[in-house]
Amino acid sequence: MPALLPPADLRRRQWLQTAVSLAAAAMPLRGRAAAGTTIRLSHVVAQDTPKGMALERFRTLVEERTAQRIRVQIFPQGRLYGDQDEMQALQLGAIDMVAPSLSKFGPIGFPEFELFDLPFLFNSVTDVRHITQGPVGQRLLNGLSRQRLLGLGYFDNGFKHMSANHALLEPAHFAGLRMRVQSSRVIAQQMRALGAWPITLPFSETRRALETGVVDGTENPVSNFYTQGMQAVQSDLSLTEHGYLGYAVVAHQRFWLGLPAADRTLVQDALREALAFGNDIADAHNDKALAALHVTGAVRIHTPTAAQRLRFKAAVMPVHADLARRIGQPWLDAVREALPPA
Question: What does the similarity note say (predicted)?
């Protein structure tokens, strides 16, 4: 007998299924862009983050190049779908495109994407792009077709740092803390390895959870930390650079194949340019946010020493072995072989 969904999840799924039926009835499957269409794109962060700005650039390029025959309607900050339901909404066809963090793919049946969540796997964004712009990254995107999804490209938000109400520079500093995490088995195990309790919460609820004491700390690139105003509810930011946060833009195959071939090419070209733009500004945006935090003095900023980073890294390395057991050692080998020498 199939497991029963909790009432809230059941209601959300029923609503999503109704939305799919209405959308399908209102729009023919093929050739619709020839007469004009709207691409509905949902994401969960602010418009002035690197992700938000890259997707706004995508909208501008598509609408300019089609004289607004193709419109892009963007729903930022989880206004339409949040962390808990954006992937389900895409799978059901209730939304056309999403730009989730790479952590979102593990819970829906693609644990190989959790490679990107491994702590201390990458030394730089250049390292990451050896994967996302190479054969391993394309193989990961191709695998999404198992669920009628189409991966259109990757882009960066940079490296994550730890925040709390005291410095987090040693494993001992995490003992007993409740740390907000994305829905990622790897990130949850990372926090447990450090002695903390991982608490899975949507990104949109994180600031409120920090403010009310539901959680004690979290991890974020500086741009996300700053644009969400977390400096008002966290006193300390530790520049650990322990993990990478990136995104993929994904479409439902039915939506994508419903576009004429020429429009698919136009949209893909616009997206490629927009993602390159997003990658170009990600580091600068994080640097700008960090400089603003230094100027305001609203948060104490800490940088671990080389010895502290080594202890931090040693504490979380068992997480790598666990992921290798779950997805197969060849995945990790392929990533490490693709990376330049340290």
Answer: Belongs to the bacterial solute-binding protein 7 family.
